[in-house]
Write a structure and sequence with these properties.
Its main location: membrane. The chain has 356 residues and is an alpha+beta fold. It is 61% helix and 19% strand. A hairpin with a 5-residue loop joins strand 5 and strand 6. Helix 1 packs parallel to helix 4, helix 2 packs antiparallel against helix 4 and helix 5 packs antiparallel against helix 6. The longest helix has 43 residues.
Length: 356
């Protein structure tokens, strides 16, 4: 059985590498074509363009892997069928289920590779890629400035007129502390600075109000320390879930919960980070059983049917994700139901193929 497994893997290596290389080259060529004008018109250094292509490779690999692996396996099965090797294997007592196991194992391994790339590599290189792309387009990195930020905590609302994320400086800060849904104290500051959860506020006022809403006390200050549970990473308005691994995204969701900010969309993305890497395994699980059972003259029709399945899979998955973001489904089900549905169909396909 080990000899058979090794032989099937050897048959799979070349078409898989060729498929991944071909799809990545197509996307890289398109990106290079788009960036070409910046080299000649804006005099952007070629090294920047090549660095951008390098940063995009993990994303291209993850996107290309499901289709590349599927068609590499279908090509391998088709060649074994054409050369009558599948007939010999079946005559020797090897069932279709045993023939499928190496392909499913390889698909599961590559799903793990896809998860590692998505969770560990892409959060590192994707922000660098986006920053370099903006630098190429504008020839200078945009200022990391955020304006008009509102942060809500349990009994507090914070307004910040402007945050310089490079220097960690604040301007025009107003803090409303609430009691029984009424303003009990207001703290203002002309400027300040961030040091994690401890902020330094400068040149401001402290005003306290009674239960009737009348000002009962007012004093000024030159500098004061202010503690907050607000996560300063949330101020980075352009940061997306693609920039974070699972642990960082989970922490951000907890921080948003504490501030009373809805997190449904982020929760959907959190579970999608677990399910999307399973796409290569699902493609192989659902498409390879009917393909390995089909007769040689019908395999082309099954290959075309695989393209239709890919379209249906992504369509159904997008519907579930949209339902999750709209709070029609819980986030965990929005991400996992397509996996359960198509995984169950694939399991039935393996059972059906083994009955041949």
């Amino acid at each position: 059985m080990f000899i058979l497994l090794r032989y099937q893997i050897q048959e799979l290596v070349f078409p898989l590498l060729l498929s991944i290389l071909g799809i990545c080259l197509i996307f890289l060529g398109e990106l290079l074509f788009e960036m070409g004008r910046y080299v000649f018109v804006n005099k952007v250094p070629l090294a920047w363009i090549l660095t951008l292509l390098l940063y995009r490779l993990p994303l291209l690999f993850v996107n290309a892997l499901p289709i590349s692996l599927l068609f590499a396996i279908l090509f391998s099965i088709g060649r074994l069928e054409k050369d009558k090797e599948l007939v010999i294997m079946r005559t020797a007592g090897v069932s279709n289920r045993k023939l499928l196991m190496p392909y499913l194992t390889i698909a599961l391994i590559f799903s793990g590779v896809s998860f590692y790339c998505s969770d560990k590599i892409m959060p590192v290189v994707y922000p660098k890629s986006e920053l370099l792309l903006r630098k190429i387009i504008f020839l200078s990195p945009p200022p990391e400035m955020v304006q008009n930020v509102f942060v809500r905590e349990k009994n507090r609302v914070i307004y910040i007129g402007r945050i310089d994320l490079e220097t960690q400086m604040l301007s025009h800060v107003m803090i409303y502390e609430l009691q029984d849904d009424k303003i009990a104290r207001v703290i203002t500051a002309e400027s300040g600075s961030l040091q994690g959860h401890s902020w330094t506020l400068r040149a401001g006022l402290i005003q306290e109000y009674d239960k009737q809403g009348r000002m009962a006390y007012e004093t000024g200050y030159q500098q004061m320390q202010f503690h907050t549970e607000a996560n300063t990473q949330l101020f980075r308005s352009e940061r997306t879930t693609s920039d974070m691994d699972l642990a960082q995204l989970a922490q951000m969701i907890r921080d948003l919960h504490r501030q009373g900010i809805p997190t449904t969309s982020y929760e959907v993305d959190y579970y999608l980070k677990m399910t999307r890497p399973l796409t290569p395994f699902l493609f192989v699980l659902l498409c390879s059983p009917p393909f390995i059972r089909a007769k040689m003259q019908h395999k082309y029709y099954f290959a075309a049917g695989c393209l239709l399945f890919i379209f249906v899979f992504f369509g159904v998955s997008s519907w579930f994700v949209s339902a999750g973001r709209a709070k029609v489904l819980p986030p965990v089900w929005a991400a996992w139901l397509p996996v359960i549905l198509f995984g169950g169909l694939g399991g039935l396909g393996v059972w059906w193929a083994d009955r041949a």
